[in-house]
Task: structure prediction
Amino acid sequence: MDWSPDAHTPVAPDHAVVDPATLDTMSALGAFASAPTVAHGAKARIAGRGVLSNNAKTGIRGKVRMAPRARAVGTAVELPPAIANPDSGSRAKEFITRKGAVPYKDEAVDCDILVNDGAREAIKANGAERFVNLIEPDNPKLVKLLKTMEAGWDRIGVRAKNAGHHSLWPEAFEAGRALLEEAFPEECDPAYGGEVLSGVAFVGDDMKDRAIDFMQRRPKTDFTMSKYNPLGRLHRDPDAIDYKQPGWMEAAMPNSGGPGEDDGYSYRYYNVWLARTPIDPSGQVWENPLCLLLPKNRGAQEWDYEVRLPEDNEGAVEETLGEKAGRIAKNPLSAAPIIMKAFSFKKGKKEDQFEFQDENYMKRGSPELTPSDEHVWVTHPFVCFDSFDMWHGAAKWESDIKSELCNGAKDVMRARQDASKGRVSMELRFRARCKPAGVKGGREGVPFSPLSSAYRGGAFKPDTVRPSGGSYDLEKGTTK
Result:
């Protein structure tokens, strides 16, 4: 293992030797190749240190490095659907930002969503390297995970009805763990004092049938019906309505310690989020990109938000008949859920919807982010991010650029087919813990997570939400 001049900052090793099939796969992904100075995982954290000439909001340099167009390399290796189209990512160097409608409370707001090198520069400039890592499509660890999912989905995912406990799919979580150890070594890699725990532990082993440690999201209009759809609402995972067993916090985050204690772990909840449907020429998903809000003041302060209660959803505007007809005309298969619902004999009451969901949700409500010009949004089709401390949700791309990407593709027909599929994505959920600098035996330079600071400081409880605009002492691991 190599070490930087800073004795407390590890440098992750280059990718290990891989088998010839994986090398062929990486060659086939040449169009995705990033600039030589952009490294994977911890290397990006080390190499990115220094003063940037930044835009005051995004922190992006005036001139962003762009990736050279790689030579086309023939290969017989079968690629996962997300990266199988040769056009995927072929124009990524042209895009550092795209316009998208971000789903704030009550109405979406058109925002700049940073992509590719634009997103990488913003993450560095905002000190968010411990919160989010963009996975390069040519990373052999990613390719291995994508292939694992394709090989096991029918056997595991379909049988589990699109979501389940991590113990159902150990090989997928092992592959996801490898990505996390590479992306966040000080939080996840045992070599640096980190540890990865599979699953979020919302429920114990006696309730595995309610676990959502892995989840596939499909469009509402998809022929294959699913209750898990791209979530068009900004949220953080602990505030969602998903069922949580009483006492889950103590069980999921043992030995956290409290204010003033000189011992305790810092916990982070990392989500390995992967697109399963084809990527567009700009290097992004065709529709419903997962937009991620970079933390405020490196996580030391909460963004402002309001709290929505279930009754606030009364009177929500539904899709009109005309809009529904237009959508079905473009994609006849999208009528399948409507037909299935019409012939369903199961008519549930509204109050029954919460029977197997978070019992505190009705009391606690759901935080809803307040729009701000200070918000910096990023997205990527393959990403590891802190889902408990980063606001996220499904945005909508500006339609003109989407059409231009379709019509400008080398294979226009294939591009249109890919674009019509919507977005199918997979999430693998983990916990990671480490001993930060503020405790006995902790690693110098490693702060507490905002989540652990709120939990240790008494601001994060099952029946309350973290305070809007609240501040944390990330060195001591408590609230201010």
The chain has one domain: 20-310+322-344+352-479. Residues 20-310+322-344+352-479 form one domain. The chain is about 25% helix and 15% strand. Residues 20 and 26 are 10 Å apart (CA to CA).
